[in-house]
Amino acid sequence: MVEKSEVVEKLKTVIDPHTRQSVWDMGLIERVEVENDVVDIIFRPSSPFCPIGQQLAFAIKRSVEDLGVKARVKVVGYVKENELNEALSR
Predict the structure, then answer these.
(1) Cβ(81)–Cβ(20) under 8 Å?
(2) Contact 56, 23 (CB under 8 A)
(3) Geometric angle at alpha carbon 25, from 20 and 27, rounded to 5°
(4) Shortest CA distance to 70 belongs to which of 61, 82, 81?
(5) pLDDT averaged over consecutive 10-residue blocks of the chain (90 residues)?
(6) For the whole model, what pTM was predicted?
(7) By CB neighbour count within 10 A (0-12 exposed, 13-18 middle, 19+ buried), where does 66 fall?
Protein backbone atom coordinates (compact mmCIF):
# COMPACT_ATOMS: atom_id res chain seq x y z
CA MET A 1 0.00 0.00 0.00
CA VAL A 2 1.19 3.49 -0.83
CA GLU A 3 1.47 6.16 1.85
CA LYS A 4 -0.06 9.63 1.55
CA SER A 5 3.42 11.15 1.88
CA GLU A 6 4.51 9.25 -1.26
CA VAL A 7 1.52 10.62 -3.15
CA VAL A 8 2.34 14.15 -2.02
CA GLU A 9 5.93 13.74 -3.23
CA LYS A 10 4.61 12.66 -6.64
CA LEU A 11 2.25 15.65 -6.75
CA LYS A 12 5.23 17.90 -6.13
CA THR A 13 6.65 16.71 -9.46
CA VAL A 14 3.65 18.01 -11.45
CA ILE A 15 4.75 21.50 -12.41
CA ASP A 16 2.59 24.32 -13.75
CA PRO A 17 4.71 25.67 -16.62
CA HIS A 18 3.38 29.21 -16.17
CA THR A 19 4.35 29.56 -12.52
CA ARG A 20 7.11 26.89 -12.40
CA GLN A 21 5.62 25.66 -9.14
CA SER A 22 4.09 22.30 -8.36
CA VAL A 23 0.34 21.82 -8.16
CA TRP A 24 0.89 20.81 -4.54
CA ASP A 25 2.87 23.93 -3.59
CA MET A 26 0.34 26.16 -5.36
CA GLY A 27 -2.43 24.71 -3.18
CA LEU A 28 -4.37 23.34 -6.15
CA ILE A 29 -4.84 19.93 -4.52
CA GLU A 30 -7.77 20.13 -2.13
CA ARG A 31 -7.81 16.55 -0.93
CA VAL A 32 -5.75 13.38 -1.05
CA GLU A 33 -7.19 10.19 0.38
CA VAL A 34 -5.44 6.84 0.16
CA GLU A 35 -7.32 3.60 0.68
CA ASN A 36 -5.65 0.34 -0.26
CA ASP A 37 -4.48 0.78 -3.85
CA VAL A 38 -6.78 3.69 -4.71
CA VAL A 39 -5.92 7.36 -4.34
CA ASP A 40 -8.71 9.94 -4.50
CA ILE A 41 -7.60 13.46 -5.38
CA ILE A 42 -9.53 16.69 -5.74
CA PHE A 43 -7.84 19.19 -8.04
CA ARG A 44 -8.97 22.81 -8.40
CA PRO A 45 -7.23 24.65 -11.26
CA SER A 46 -6.03 28.17 -10.52
CA SER A 47 -8.98 29.61 -12.45
CA PRO A 48 -12.16 28.23 -14.03
CA PHE A 49 -10.64 28.99 -17.44
CA CYS A 50 -7.11 27.74 -16.73
CA PRO A 51 -5.62 27.09 -20.20
CA ILE A 52 -3.69 24.05 -18.98
CA GLY A 53 -6.23 22.66 -16.51
CA GLN A 54 -6.80 19.54 -18.60
CA GLN A 55 -3.11 18.85 -19.07
CA LEU A 56 -2.43 19.27 -15.35
CA ALA A 57 -5.31 16.96 -14.41
CA PHE A 58 -3.98 14.17 -16.64
CA ALA A 59 -0.41 14.79 -15.42
CA ILE A 60 -1.63 14.42 -11.84
CA LYS A 61 -3.33 11.13 -12.68
CA ARG A 62 -0.28 9.74 -14.53
CA SER A 63 2.22 10.77 -11.87
CA VAL A 64 0.25 9.16 -9.04
CA GLU A 65 -0.43 6.01 -11.04
CA ASP A 66 3.34 5.68 -11.48
CA LEU A 67 3.25 4.53 -7.84
CA GLY A 68 1.34 1.41 -8.92
CA VAL A 69 -2.06 2.56 -7.65
CA LYS A 70 -5.30 3.68 -9.25
CA ALA A 71 -5.69 7.45 -9.17
CA ARG A 72 -9.20 8.89 -9.20
CA VAL A 73 -8.80 12.59 -9.95
CA LYS A 74 -11.82 14.85 -9.63
CA VAL A 75 -11.60 18.38 -11.01
CA VAL A 76 -13.70 21.10 -9.37
CA GLY A 77 -14.18 24.77 -10.20
CA TYR A 78 -13.36 24.34 -13.88
CA VAL A 79 -15.52 25.49 -16.78
CA LYS A 80 -15.75 22.01 -18.38
CA GLU A 81 -15.29 19.92 -15.29
CA ASN A 82 -18.01 17.39 -16.14
CA GLU A 83 -16.44 16.47 -19.48
CA LEU A 84 -12.96 16.44 -17.98
CA ASN A 85 -14.00 14.26 -15.05
CA GLU A 86 -15.62 11.81 -17.44
CA ALA A 87 -12.41 11.60 -19.49
CA LEU A 88 -10.30 11.15 -16.35
CA SER A 89 -12.46 8.24 -15.19
CA ARG A 90 -11.62 6.12 -18.25
Answers:
(1) no
(2) yes
(3) 115
(4) 61
(5) 96 96 98 97 96 97 98 97 96
(6) 0.96
(7) exposed
